[in-house]
Amino acid sequence: MTENLYINNTKEVYDAIVIGSGISGGWAAKEFCERGLKTLMIERGRVVEHRKDYIGENKAPWQQPLRTKVDNLLVKEQHQIQQQCYAFTDATKHFFGNDKDLPYTTEKGTNFTWIRANQLGGKSLLWHRQSYRLGEYDFNANKSDGFGNDWPIRSQDIEKWYSHVEKHAGISGSLDNLENLPDGEFLPPFEMNSPEKALQAKFAELYPQRPLIMGRTAHLTKPTKLHLSQGRVKCQARNECHAGCSFGGYFSTQSSTLPAAAATNNLHIAPNSVVHSLIYDEKTNRVKGVRVIDNDDLTEREYFAKVVFVCASTIGSTQILMNSTSKKFPNGIANSSGVLGHYLMDHNYNAGASGDIEGFEDEIDRGRRPTGLMMPNFYYKPDASRNFLRGYALAGSAYREGWQSLQHQDGLGADYKNKLKQAGKWRFGLYAQGEMLPRFENQMRFHPTLKDKWGMPQIEFDCQFSDNETNMMIDAAQQAEKMLKAVGLKNVSSQVMNGPPGLAIHELGTARMGRDPKNSILNAYNQSHDIPNLFVTDGASFCSSAVQNPSLTFMALTVRAVDYCVKEMNAKRI
Amino acid sequence: MKEHYNEEPYIEVSCIEESNMANESRRKFLRGLSFLVGGTVATALVSGNSLAVAMEHSLKPVIVGSDLLSDGKIFPLSQLKQLKDICAIVIPKTDTLGAAEVNTHGFIDNQLFHCYGKAKQTKIKQLLILINDVAKKNFSRSFTELSQDQQFKLLTELDQGKANFDKKQRADFKALKQLICFGYYTSEVGASQELRYLAVPGGYKGSIPYKGSDANWGSQGLYY
């Protein structure tokens, strides 16, 4: 490992600067370092060391002062927004941003939840770890129905890069041979429990076009030598991932990409460095480096490199581009098209159905599986007979009820205690994860006057689900209810909700790729159309959201972009 | 690192779940971890890091039959005593300790203060006053002075919204029961003795035999 991994001030001109240390930034740094490039990873937040700083890990509820809950006062002062995330608990709260320092606004009549994880590792520590490739129909979706611009890539352009990241990260899953959800380089899937196996068989019989598969997840079910060499071992099925995992059971920057990058001796990390803007040289039409405000003392400094990869999260990356203005780019660097900040997307989780499973009383599962089951999008082929475009996946798992459900019944005393001691009936649900259309009017922009403590203009969101998403959720609830009844569940109920975008934490778009520089920011290699040595490889680059959890695609796009960038540098075109 | 690994590295770790001595689980967690990740890393782990610090920190003992001597953060002493009696009726001592023995009343006082708003605090306080008023009306004694049978009967009526109690009061009592259940089943006794606690399961098995007398899992990861 580099003698001094962490740096503050330096005059060195690096080969590559990577802004951000989350899933995309970690991969960019690893790939540059392994190709022999001196790389500076810039992180706005503090250092989080693998294992050492997982301060909430493996604490039983009674070892936590408020038994997993977070003090009101702390929530009120620092985490009003962040506490909306399901993963916000006493064991994880230190990995979420302080809302007081991270203000943003929303257009009147709209709402957007922006979850922040500003520390080394970013949201790779907090992600849900579901990992799916995009399929050919997904890459073709915008072109096919004319909504949004055409993805400049197809499956064949990215499949070998999916394989590359899957092998290193460790993705568990089953080979399902589906038309629009490509198989990958999988470790063995997690087991299904008995009711799930029975449901899977029943679905196969009644709905052969709607298979139920084990969720594909970035957990080491059976580590390879490569994973062991990263210092990682098998997932222990604690399902306490968001507190950090000393086993390295799931993929994170800390567990997987950072050790690989650091081992090359080519990596430096500048923590506590809030990127204010990119330094642009109009004469050469190149980005020269970045201007940084110190996270703690607010002093300014600059870092320099031959190429800059912006991997600061969808909103974070675009915020930096928008704040990098010059005579040539008065509305944000690389924004000659004017679409920067537009076509913001998330996924829609606003529908689901659940019911009781009869039988299986003489068995229970053991361990806490960190994934559920997935019914991949069965609407991937366009069909004008539906009252919405695109589709949704459904996810869920079977479990036996515990005291949280059973406590509501009448009763007191030893009988009541005994009922709550035992496992209740099996339950199963299907919950939607729907595609959100790319719409120009859904956007992030700068608030005209407000700034944050680092002097960055505050983001104002103007983003809403449309009738298309609402109609899709109504269909999802109906289909889920119908199917659960058909496969034999009892007491089935469904619901359609009205949550605003943001909370799926799958922000996508705002600096999209495209074939035409007039209506996109990036080319097919995540390279700026306008400035050859500037790349954006995170979710900002997406042309459509598809229905899949996007992180695996962040990884694949990033490594593909680095490979291209280094070849271009070697060919002296960058 | 490889020499520390074999195909079944979970044998050591899996003994954790056999132990109900949950304050040992953290020590065993580290021992299991060192077995799994190898000596070098484990040494680094134990030197001056948070896990080691946490290990040093001995757990506060469960307060058994604690003497109630002073007011709580929300409840005056008299209401804490009343709440303790209610805890004992809702989840009594059986072959494991009950809610009163593990200081669930103290937990509720603390939790209401730190994690709930005024409305909920007031609701529970008023419920305790109501229970006491009904006790006085029917038995001419305060709730804590009633026999356990009388307490049980009174709370059963409340739990079912019958006799002296209406639907809203019944709902308020269900809210109190939820606090009692949360406090009990997240306590060391509730989660690891009454129920079964797996700190480090070692892997996921989809199906193991279960009979009605078996305890459910008390370990739920981060999400209680």
Account of the protein in words:
The complex is a heterodimer of chains A (574) and B (224). Chain A is built from twelve helices and 20 strands. Chain A is of the alpha/beta class and 574 residues long. Chain A has two domains: 310 residues, FAD/NAD(P)-binding domain (3-Layer(bba) Sandwich); 145 residues, no CATH class. In chain A, strands 1, 2, 7, 8, 9, 10 and 20 form a seven-stranded mixed β-sheet that branches. Chain A is globular and about 75 Å long. The two termini of chain A are 29 Å apart. The mean pLDDT of chain A is 97. Chain B folds into two domains: 60 residues, no CATH class; 110 residues, no CATH class. In chain B, helix 6 packs across helix 9. Chain B is globular and about 55 Å long. The N terminus of chain B is likely disordered. Chains A and B meet through helix 5, helix 6, strand 12 and helix 10 of A and helix 2, helix 3, helix 4, helix 6 and helix 8 of B.
Please render the helix and strand layout as text.
The complex is a heterodimer of chains A (about 575) and B (about 220).
Chain A: E1 13-19, H1 23-34, E2 39-42, H2 72-78, E3 105-106, H3 136-145, H4 155-169, E4 171-172, E5 186-187, H5 194-206, E6 213-214, H6 225-229, H7 253-262, E7 267-270, E8 273-281, E9 286-294, E10 300-310, H8 314-322, E11 351-357, E12 363-366, E13 373-375, E14 392-396, E15 399-400, H9 403-406, H10 413-421, E16 426-434, E17 443-451, E18 457-462, H11 467-486, E19 490-496, E20 534-536, H12 551-570
Parallel strand pairs in A: 1-2, 1-10, 2-7, 3-18, 4-5, 10-20
Antiparallel strand pairs in A: 6-13, 8-9, 9-10, 11-16, 11-19, 13-14, 14-16, 15-16, 17-18
Helix pairs in contact in A: 1-7, 1-12, 4-12
Chain B: H1 10-14, H2 22-37, H3 39-46, H4 50-56, H5 77-90, H6 104-115, H7 118-139, H8 148-160, H9 167-185, H10 188-194, E1 205-209
Helix pairs in contact in B: 2-3, 5-6, 5-8, 6-9
